[in-house]
Every structure is written in structure tokens, then in C-alpha cells.
Design brief:
135 residues; THO complex subunit 7; rod-shaped
Amino acid sequence: MASNPTPDEEVILRNRIIFDTRSLRKCYRRFLTQSVDHLSQSDLTTAYEQFLVDLRMVQTNLEKHQLAYEMYLRETAIYKDECNRIEREIDEAKADIITLKGDLEQAQLRRKNKLEYDDLAKQINKHSTRRDTLE
């Protein structure tokens, strides 16, 4: 059973996927061909130029890799910020819900009291006033 890779292993795997080592190996082979003693000056010059081209390709790949890594870091930071923002909003929403529940209970209590008051007022109005009963 394979375990989940750690973040460092994940970065290494991503780097291997992003950075193609073929150009580096090709550059290394070109370098080795230059070190052979039996090459003529023109062959040596050609091999040197090809080596420089391959070296520039490796440099370009490394720059691409660095840009991809920086993008990964920015995306990670943005993701963490977004997670923190969402957690804050959830906490704020929970606090709002608690406040609104209290407001709802108070409004329900006021309504209940008003209805009771209205019922009592109706019952009182059914009876005649004291003045009428004294006369």
C-alpha cells in the first residue's frame, strides 16, 4: 500500500515532470565528444557550437522550471489565503446566525406579548365601563 507523498516529495515529482532531462543529457554527451583528442579543429568548433546551443536549451528549460516553481508558490499562497478568507466568512456567518437567532427570539416574544395584549384589550372592551355600570 503506497503512502501519500510528502509535500517535499510532491515538489520533487513535479520538478521531474516539468524539467526534461533529455536536453541536459544531450548537452553532457556533446561536452564529452569535445574532450576526445582525435577531433579536427573544424569538428571541434562544430561540436563546441552545438554544445553552446544545447547549453542554451538547458538554461531555457531551467528558467521555465524556475517560473513554474514561482507560479506554484504563488498559487499555493493564493489558495491558503482563499482558505483563510472562507474560514473567516464561515465564522462570521456563524456569529451572524447566533445574533439573528437571538433577534428572532426577541421578535417572537414581542409578537406573543402583543397578541396577548390585544386579546386582553378585546376582553376588557367587551365589558362596559365603570361609569356605565355605576349609573
